[in-house]
Amino acid sequence: MKSEHLLRADRLFVDWKEMLLGGELPVRWPLADEMSPLSAIVAEPGRVNLVGGAPGSGKTALTQQLVVDGLRLTDGLKVLIANVEMAPDVLLNRQLSRLSGIDLTLIQDRMFEPEHMPRILTGLQELEVISSRLGFVAGPFTLENVASAADDLEPEILVLDYLQRFPCSASDDKRGGLDRAMSLIRQFADSGCCVFVVSALARQKNAQGRNSYDADSMSMASFRDSSELEFGADSAWILTTGKEPHERTLKHLKARNGECKDIALEFDGSVQRFSGTFVDDIASQAESWWPR
Fold first, then answer.
1. Assigned superfamily of 25-286
2. Is 239 helix (H, G, I), strand (E, B) or coil?
3. pLDDT of 279
4. Whole-angstrom Cα distance, residue 60 to residue 83?
5. Greatest CA separation for the chain
6. Helix (H/G/I), strand (E/B), else coil: 102
7. pLDDT at 288 over 50
8. Does residue 183 contact residue 36 with C-beta atoms inside 8 Å?
């Protein structure tokens, strides 16, 4: 009796060899300009990218920048965002600030002046172009409801921000939901999505024995409920802060299919922008683009 669970390599070899030598490149969606260090972050079908960081480090700003720029770089790409802490208009405010270079506070408080309008309008135009391919999950925030929204939008990239707040269904308690969450996330990935999972971190004891988010002690164990996350993620990153307020390091802690490489970044919190992407030029040139 033949087992339905056995895949013989000799029967797979012909198809695998043809795919390997046929010259067709694997599907990947760029998330940053190729000259940016952030271009090292891979988005492709079936991949689960885990991103963590201490409160205020900018992990939400980073993931939002990556996926919005991914939409701008690839026509037809669709992104679904499930954010339990920020409403869609708050997230759009942040992206408008980043793309226009106008201080986020001025945008949130609607205090921008006439001289800001060229940049504001340029940023709005950038967001309007991608708006039909960007979706947000409405609460209640369960993975069951995320799956329902994904069925409607059929996204290539899914963002869950942040995982510890997502039970699988409304009947799950916090612990039970998290236990099943990564297996459900793998189902999203197996269906062809690239999933970005934003995670909370657990405080670690520093050299003085105090609980902190000390950058030097960050590891896979720093992720809250780390065992399930470590097993389920293909790549894992932790965004750490440096001595200066703008300094960030994206520590690469896991790469299932490659080499771990840390990324040094700068973060401008006033416009929610990480340095090194092509949008820096858009913000600086928007004034000259817009007719006076």
1. P-loop containing nucleotide triphosphate hydrolases (3.40.50.300)
2. strand
3. 42
4. 9
5. 78
6. coil
7. no
8. no
- How many other β-carbons are positioned within 10 Å of the β-carbon of residue 179? 14
* Euclidean distance between CA atoms 124 and 118, whole angstroms: 10
Pairing mode, if any, of strands 48-53 and 134-136? Answer: unpaired
What are the tokens at 197? 């999972």
C-alpha to C-alpha distance for 144 and 95, rounded to whole angstroms: 27
Tally of CA atoms within 13 A in the half-sphere of 222 that contains its CB: 29
The more confident residue out of 219 and 225 is: 219
Domain positions in the chain are: 25-286
Residue with tokens 């869950």: 160
How much is the pTM? 0.86
Q: What is the separation, in whole angstroms, between the first and last Cα of the chain?
A: 78
Tell the residue number behind the tokens 């001025």, with chain if given: 106
Instruction: State phi, psi for 18 to the nearest 5 degrees.
Output: -65, -40
3-state SS, residue 251: strand
Looking at the chain, list the stretches that DSSP marks H as alpha helix, in order from N- to C-terminal side. 9-21, 59-73, 88-100, 104-108, 117-130, 143-153, 174-190, 226-232, 279-289
